[in-house]
């Protein structure tokens, strides 16, 4: 089981999913019409480290975060 | 040092504390950058969400970069609402010589704008409206989107 | 605004005064540069001579440049002796947006170093020794020298 | 009569000279052995404005300043 969190302006509760990698996460999230615009512009972190590939395996208890476009300052 | 505050920053107090903390560290240059909420487009203020775990690791990586040049960085940012003409952001570089500090503050502030996990909202008629048009996708965004 | 002080600068006080003076001017960025006397080469401090008439006209020309970009500049400098770890120089830019301020503070400080009619002396064993090796001839210098 | 001032570290009292232009000033100052090193690195101002040519005529009461290499901050 992994936990998926939507940060900042994506007003969506967390999900708990049984998935093995980020490819599977992409497939699940792409079915949510509300999310499709966000997905184009979101960065992804696994356990608070940004990732640049979908291939890394996930393990039980991992936390995945979706980070929409930022604007600090 | 990274400091997060609820609401607006007490700029004179923070600038003074940082200056005094490094008073005998033998840095020749101290360059703070202060960001203040401007009155534009009829907003009453801004509001901020921060994701601290990634902000901390992003900041730590910059602190290491600074250290390699003999410099240090300090940063303060607001959480929640900051009204017109109040300040929400201070970043500062201390370094032995001026060139390092002048270049570092510029690079740091630009990367902050592009990468720091902070989300900005306009306060408009009592509502919190995501500042989508001024926001920047973090490098590598779009990983989960459908390829087409 | 150009302020000259006898001896070292009260940095927290000046940074606060400038910040508060522009509190409602709707500038989004405030970038001060603070220069502090470093301990090196066994000096006890530095000392400064200033030629005010030309400093004023040099500063006024920069203020005009800043104004053309919607920005303003403030500067404070010490006259006479400033001891180790005390500060002798503050320059600050206020502008609506950050890029102008980040670029302006760099250009201003560099031209200040190259052009402002201020002479620096090391305080060494009670003597005032001209810092010839760190000084820069003003552009166009040598006009009166023998051609050869 | 013009007045010539030596600024900053050039420890030299002011001069009052009867000269018509900066070429004449150059000739006078070049005879002072102490000044010859300074002259190579000094900028020149007439009435507090920096000049880039020796040709401009001087008039009675003008103030000429010699500015050695600077280092503010």
Mass-distribution shape of chain B: globular
Give the class of chain A from helix and strand content and strand pairing: alpha+beta
Most extensive contact = A-B, 32 and 38 residues
In N-to-C order, the SSE pattern of chain B is EHEEHEEHEE
Q: Give a count of the beta strands of chain B, DSSP E runs of length 2 or more.
A: 7
Adjacency order of strands in the biggest sheet of chain A: 2-1-5-3-4
SSE-based structural type of chain B: alpha+beta
The description of the largest β-sheet of chain A is: 5 strands, mixed
Give the tally of structural domains of chain A.
Answer: 1
What would CATH call the homologous superfamily of chain B?
A: Molybdopterin biosynthesis MoaE subunit
Task: Return Rg of chain B in Å.
Answer: 17 Å
Which regions of chain A are unreliable across 5 or more consecutive residues at pLDDT < 50?
Answer: none
CATH architecture of chain B: Alpha-Beta Complex
Number of helical segments with 4 or more residues of chain A = 2
- Oligomeric category: heterotetramer
State the domain count of chain B: 1
Described by strand count, sense and barrel closure, the largest sheet of chain B is:
7 strands, mixed
Name the poorly predicted regions of chain B: none
What do these coordinates show?
The complex is a heterotetramer, with 2 copies of chain A (73 residues) and 2 copies of chain B (148 residues). Chain A is an alpha+beta fold and 73 residues long. Chain A has a single domain (2-67), classed as Ubiquitin-like (UB roll), CATH 3.10.20. Helices cover 21% and strands 26% of the residues of chain A. A 5-stranded mixed beta sheet of chain A has the order 2-1-5-3-4, with no helix packed on it. The longest helix of chain A is centred in the middle third of the chain and has 9 residues, at 22-30. The model of chain A has no long low-confidence stretch (mean pLDDT 96). Chain B has one domain: Molybdopterin biosynthesis MoaE subunit (Aldehyde Oxidoreductase, domain 3), CATH 3.90.1170. Chains in contact: A-B, B-C, C-D. Chains A and B meet through α1, α2, β3, β4 and β5 of A and β3, α2, α3 and β6 of B. β2 of chain B pairs antiparallel with β2 (29-36) of chain C, so a sheet runs across the interface.
């Amino acid at each position: 089981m992994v936990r998926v969190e939507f940060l900042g302006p994506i007003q969506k509760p967390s999900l708990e999913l049984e998935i093995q990698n980020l490819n599977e996460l992409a497939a699940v999230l792409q079915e949510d019409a509300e999310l499709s615009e966000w997905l184009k512009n979101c960065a992804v972190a696994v356990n608070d480290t940004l990732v640049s590939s979908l291939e890394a395996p996930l393990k039980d208890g991992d936390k995945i975060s979706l980070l929409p476009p930022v604007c600090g300052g | 040092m990274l400091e997060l505050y609820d609401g607006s920053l007490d700029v004179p107090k923070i600038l003074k504390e940082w200056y005094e903390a490094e008073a005998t560290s033998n840095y020749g240059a101290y360059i703070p950058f202060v960001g203040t909420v401007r009155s534009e487009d009829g907003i009453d203020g801004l509001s901020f969400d921060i994701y601290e775990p990634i902000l901390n690791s992003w900041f730590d990586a910059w602190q290491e970069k600074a250290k390699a040049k003999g410099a240090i960085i300090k940063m303060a940012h607001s959480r929640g609402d900051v009204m017109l003409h109040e300040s929400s952001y201070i970043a500062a570089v201390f370094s032995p010589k001026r060139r390092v500090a002048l270049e570092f503050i510029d690079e740091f502030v630009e990367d902050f704008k592009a990468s720091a996990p902070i989300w900005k909202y306009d306060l408009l008629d009592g509502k919190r409206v995501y500042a989508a048009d001024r926001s920047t996708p973090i490098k590598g965004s779009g990983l989960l989107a459908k390829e087409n």
